[in-house]
Amino acid sequence: MSLDTISLSGKKKEVSNKKMTFWESLYLVAIFKGLMITIRHLFQRKVTIKYPEEKRPLSPVYRGQHMLKRDELGRENCTACGMCAVACPAEAITMKAAERKPGEELLYREEKYAEIYEINMLRCIFCGLCEEACPKDAIYLTETKVMVPSASKREDFIFGKDKLVMPLTEAMKNRQNQLS
Amino acid sequence: MDSAIIIEKGIFILAVFAITMFMAMYSTLAERKIAAWLQDRIGPNRAGKGGILQPLADGLKLFAKEEFMPSTQNTFLFVLGPAISMSMALMTSAVIPWGDKLEIGGRTVILQATDIDVAMLYIFAVLSVGVYGIMIGGWASNNKFSLMSAMRASSQMISYEVAMGLAIIALIMATGTLSVREIAAQQSGFWNDGWFTWNVFKHPLSFLIFLVCSFAETNRTPFDLAECEAELIGGHHTEYSSMKMGFYLFGEYAAMFISSAILAILYFGAYNYPGFQWAVENWGVNVANILGIIALFVKICFFIFFYMWVRWTIPRFRYDQLMNLGWKMLIPLAIANIVITGLVIVLTQ
């Protein structure tokens, strides 16, 4: 068997450069066939997702906006060790540590906490290495399922603790789930 | 001539103008919607419910755009281009019979702006002037691409006008009249003497040639070489902006509407529908004719849809394919059609 007769996929088609007959050169048959193909698409299901109303389902491991977690008592996990900042390949994370004062035990879990914690979302590549590096289970990208919203100024993309820390209500909900 | 007829015609022309504009406006939305549907998308759906206000939004955008004038010596011609394009598209509507007649307060109102007996010649004359809009605009733009587009458009128009005229000769031979009103009236009803009365069943080849040439005359795909973006940027409207650009685009849709109307009237029985005579006898002239106008608009809408359907199905022709199709296929076919029609007329009489 010669090579030109083999068709492994079964879809092989001979191309020819033969002269068109009169009817072919009127293109009418070909156009009619094409019209029949397109009219079928008129009645097919549309693939568009109407974005703000409908959202594409995200995978369970989708890495979206970061979240600084609180524990079951609502205390911030982060101790400002800087491991995430070291791990970050894009140099997106900065922080400033501070010492916990007496009376703040319900706010921060350890004696040291992040006074300022900022992620530059324009630098961030959402690789998830900070999440992997964190020894305190403090930073997660897979929890929020939120895409970083657009903004018109560069400064607006530097997210501080106000946007990153898990809301207290959510921590309370977690606590209730744990108890029940 | 009494003054009532002037008022009557005035109102009628205004109504036709408004309807043409309305149809052209919503053709732009229909085009985008049909394009989307044929490609499994939804299309514009933000302005109004289901995108119903999209044409207004587009118009508003065009009005708000900067009016740019290229450094050309021919500012007059530059403005004249879109004006001709638009007015020629609208002028054809003067001889189109939108219905037979209405009886309002004892007066018989003929639903046609003017019933001239050389209406077919008039349509051809106006259609061929339409290309001047593109030619003048392309020339005055002082831009190589625009000029090239203008040349393509005019040579295409000349080539296809021949075939179009020859196709229509066969029809005129059979109907024996140049009046569009007369041709429409001859297709009355649907079935007569053992054959359909509509011309498309009597002259299928003539219809086919006329249809292909209509695509070429309105510069629609597959004959839109004049504005092929890949090679000529925007073709003749490269240098146009704001509402002058809008006029070109709008004129094109108006031309498409009118061309669909001509197709429907010459070949698809105009305002006639099966049972037209019965409706006149039983329901009265007015009801029958209003139904007739609706029937005509259904036919027109079908042709507009057909134009768009073809546009989103096939790519545009290469230039040599276009010329081969025009000169080597359509013209011989049209001549053969004339000979066959002549033989049939001689043999049946």
From TrEMBL, chain A:
Gene3D superfamilies: 3.30.70.3270. Keywords: 4Fe-4S, Cell membrane, Iron, Iron-sulfur, Membrane, Metal-binding, NAD, Quinone, Repeat, Translocase, Transmembrane, Transmembrane helix, Ubiquinone. It catalyses: a quinone + NADH + 5 H(+)(in) = a quinol + NAD(+) + 4 H(+)(out). [4Fe-4S] cluster 2 binds at residues 88, 124, 127, 130. SUPFAM superfamilies: 4Fe-4S ferredoxins. It comes from the Bacteria. PROSITE patterns: 4FE4S_FER_1, 4FE4S_FER_2. GO terms for molecular function: 4 iron, 4 sulfur cluster binding; iron ion binding; NADH dehydrogenase (quinone) (non-electrogenic) activity; quinone binding. Binds 2 [4Fe-4S] clusters per subunit. Signal peptide: none annotated. It is a peripheral membrane protein. It is found in: Cell membrane. NDH-1 shuttles electrons from NADH, via FMN and iron-sulfur (Fe-S) centers, to quinones in the respiratory chain. The immediate electron acceptor for the enzyme in this species is believed to be ubiquinone. Couples the redox reaction to proton translocation (for every two electrons transferred, four hydrogen ions are translocated across the cytoplasmic membrane), and thus conserves the redox energy in a proton gradient. Belongs to the complex I 23 kDa subunit family. This is NADH-quinone oxidoreductase subunit I. It comes from Flavobacterium suncheonense GH29-5 = DSM 17707. The lineage of its organism: Bacteria, Pseudomonadati, Bacteroidota, Flavobacteriia, Flavobacteriales.
TrEMBL record, chain B:
It is a multi-pass membrane protein. It comes from the Bacteria. InterPro entries: NADH_UbQ_OxRdtase_su1/FPO, NADH_UbQ_OxRdtase_su1_CS. It is an enzyme of class 7 (translocase). It holds the Pfam family NADHdh. Its main location: membrane. Belongs to the complex I subunit 1 family. NDH-1 is composed of 14 different subunits. Subunits NuoA, H, J, K, L, M, N constitute the membrane sector of the complex. This is NADH-quinone oxidoreductase subunit H. It comes from Flavobacterium suncheonense GH29-5 = DSM 17707. The gene is nuoH.
